[in-house]
Amino acid sequence: MMNLEFYRNLPKKECRECGCEIKEQHESYLYECEHCLRTHEE
To answer: Can you give the pLDDT at residue 17?
Structure first.
């Protein structure tokens, strides 16, 4: 149970570019949100 509490208390990951919360999936190493990533691709 203590392990779950640790993960629940981790801060939300924020985009380096715009500061929005990143809705990440398991083992995601992204540091930018989808919007900012698309902007860089153009």
So the answer is: 94
Cα(8)–Cα(39) distance, integer angstroms: 31
Distance CA 29, CA 40 (A): 17
**pLDDT score, position 25:** 66
Of the candidates 12, 13, 20, the residue with the CA atom closest to the CA atom of residue 36: 20
Query: Cα separation of 33 and 4, whole Å?
Result: 25
The answer to whether the CB of 22 falls within 8 A of the CB of 33 is yes
Question: Distances in Å between the alpha carbon of 12 and those of 16, 21, 26, 36, 39?
Answer: 12, 7, 14, 17, 22
